[in-house]
Hints:
Helices cover 33% and strands 12% of the residues. The protein has 11 helices and 10 strands. Mean pLDDT is 94; it is low at 1-9.
Amino acid sequence: MNTVTTSEIPLPQATGAWREGDPPGRRRWHALPRPLPLESGGRLPGVRIAYETWGRPAPDGSNAVLVLHALTGDSHVSGPAGPGHPQPGWWAGLVGPSLALDTDRWFVVAPNVLGGCQGTTGPASMRPDGRSWGSAFPRLTQRDQVAAEAQLADALGVDRWAMVVGGSMGGMRALEWAVSYPERVGRLLLLATTAAASAEQIAWAGVQLHAIRADPQWRGGDYHDAGPGRGPHAGLGVARRLAHVTYRSEAELQDRFGRAFQGDEDPGRGGRYQVESYLDHHAAKLVRRFDAGSYVTLTEAMNGHDIGRGRGGTAAALRRVTARTLVAGVDSDRLYPLHQQGELADGIPGADRLRVIESPYGHDGFLVETDQVASLVRGLLDASG
Length: 385
């Protein structure tokens, strides 16, 4: 049976990014008043940060919680899919009245990361001269991204976050917040993340970057105005397939799919196994809502993550953290293994013991195991000190 590949699926645009003229959804924007200095030495002009909020801020801003998303996430933490939001909130079970992040009590803020593609300035955005950034978009670091978020916090009147929480890439930024601005973080929840990207993590990411750049439709990164369906969808789809395998556990994939065929398709006759169909599905979803340039920009920032760079090493950097800290990892995570979270829990002064999220779902467990994560959130927010 012939199968339809991601690259053959008709797409309305060359990118799945949110672009000017699209429905705003729940987003709001903050425009930085001046070009953002970058760690590389350059300056990024015309930066806008897209963000969403839930709840009401206290007069003194003391009830503000910052939620930071992972690689292909965005500001839409909670809420239905709809115009402007291609998928439902990615942590909806945590944010809302009477939930762990109770919006009757807490003012929850979630920005789309700098370099992202859902409203914040990134490769798919327009430059001040009216052209798409594309290949001209600068290389970013986690520190650049957090510096932009700090300006958003200033604009919202938040001098100090009651808590900063993030998992995976979001955990990298949460840690960077606590090290760069220790006086501005009261509590810190780090999930399935690391002090520095490891060689294996960089290797997996590097293969994904090669897949995108090898796509003829990549055009060196200048594809955003190429016309309907002419972006590097095949390369981005391959990158997503590879990444998704690392996000789940071997046991879960085996238990869920085994060697079963997809429907009446016979792999011996050109058909697919169920696990291949599963990966195809996730690839097709991503290319419709994400941008390949953002995927490259954010992945390179993750590869460059090293909390100890220029700070005397990891141990010295972690000692800067003054927030009450809780670190948790997923027992089946093969991408960000538990020993990396153990290093954080051991190195951050006063951090509670490492907590383990029990899950068959691998790295994605921090997103899937809502009840366990909710318990961690409540425990940290309710802790004294």
